[in-house]
Amino acid sequence: MSTEEKQELIERIEAELENDVIDPELGVDIVNLGLVYGIDVDDDKNVKITMTLTSMGCPLAGTIVSDIKTALKDLQEFKEINEVDVDIVWNPPWDKDKMSRYAKIALGVPD
To answer: Where is the MIP18 family-like domain (predicted)?
Structure first.
């Protein structure tokens, strides 16, 4: 898989997450909230998503991970990707500055 093909696949994965994985408490997708720190695809098309949550004690971590795997099911069924691993990290800590302009407007957070 070329670097260009990987980048295209990463962009498709990000689009799926943006469209389908909404933070249940905030009602905004995890991409625009700035929770996704990285998406990596290896040569075997295994996907590793590195992300954080808005708070360390977030009771919805399992729900969000499940929603991610569900959002990427079609890509797996069509053999575009294989395994999906979600790695939740706490460093760097999330803050509102990581949110996109869209998320800030949707949540009424000043720039």
So the answer is: 20-79
